[in-house]
Amino acid sequence: MGFIDEIKKDLVDVLPENPCFKAVLFGESVGYFEFVSGIKSYSGTEIVVFVKRGELKICGENLYIKKLCEGDLVVVGKIKAVERV
Amino acid sequence: MRLFSVYKIEGLNLDSLINTLKKRKITLYEVSKLTPKRLNVKVKYKDGKKLFAISKELCYNIVKIKDTGLLYPLLFFKRNLGLLIGGIIFLGLSVFSNDFIFSYSFSGSGAVYSQSVREYLENKGVKPFTRFSELNLKTLSSQILIDNDNLSFVSCTKKGNTLEISLTKSYENKVTLTGNVTEFVSPYNGVVQELKVYRGSLVAKVGDKIKKGDLLVLGEAVVKDTLINVNVIAYACILEENVFEYISDTDKDVDKAQAFAMGKTEGEVVDVKTTVTPKNDKYCYTVSLFLRRTILVG
Question: Whose CA is closest to A65, among A42, A83, A82?
Fold first, then answer.
């Protein structure tokens, strides 16, 4: 996480203060998303979520929601793509 | 440490329900859509009532599948308090009642002294309904052995509620080492089971079949390449076979034949073999008694 803090320091002018979403992928099997306001659609191959100013589409196989609370979403499965819609 | 409940929810527009639950601050775990109209969801146990209320309100069918989590065993026992209390009482009674001596059992060649050992135990305060936890069985075994000259070995063990006492009668006279034995010859016919030499040279070995008078240990030793005469100190254990014949009118008197043979000899019997052959109008029992003989010389 020290590396991320360094990048944040260098990009402080570029990084938005209130991002519309944050996505962290751990390999292709776990995805952690912040600032998710709701679920638009949910299936084993595609999950579409509402974020600030738009939607986020997560495509893959055997996807399922591991945890959903407040603004946090954890998706588990074979994540092939994350697309801003 | 958490407790969760898993529910099955059926209805239309399940995505909208997920959003509603999230808005109502219910954390959802492991949401899996089995079919477009069926969803399995895991929530915290305390959110279960809320989930039920919301789902019913929105006309979804909701069924609880199971409770799960590290705290589930506590919940189970809370729901089945009678079972828990019964289990504790049962365990307590078993442990408690298993601790009492209800009877003695004697075995071994020293069992002939069971009555005197029983009286000895009672004088020491070891009676029926004494607790095993108040006794040290090893110390008890040693005490019985020390205070009873007729016994050469004592072992006390617990088997359920029975105090099992194994006694070995002391057959051999006490030996005084004189230090002037020049050779060790066997006083018995049989097979050498054990042979330990503390001073001298081995002539026989374990497993050898020997006769009375055979040399077992010679009073010689090699010291710095020189052969010298020494006084023998050695210990041997010999399995002696004694054969007896018993005649009877029937072929069902095996016990009598063996008792007859044992009455004719003294020593620790380790094995008995009996064969029956018809002889004229009667039956001849050939009883082979295998006795363990221990000898210490020196």
Answer: A42
Whether A69 and B22 lie within 8 Å, measured CB to CB: yes
* Chain segment A24-54, per-residue pLDDT in tens: 999 889 999 998 988 999 988 999 999 888 8
Residue B151: the pLDDT is: 82
Nearest to A4 by CA among A24, A30, A33, A34: A24
Identify any residues that bridge with B103 across adjacent strands, giving them in sequence order. Answer: B162
Phi and psi (nearest 5°) for B124?
-85, 0
Pairing status of strand B190-199 against strand B233-248: antiparallel
Question: Which of B86, B84, B87 has the alpha carbon at shortest distance from B73?
Answer: B84
pLDDT exceeding 70 applies to what percent of chain B? 97
ipTM for the assembly: 0.76
Pairwise CA distance, residues B200 & B228, whole Å:
10
Of B18, B26, B30, the CB nearest to A42: B18
Using an 8 Å Cβ cutoff, are A79 and A25 in contact? yes
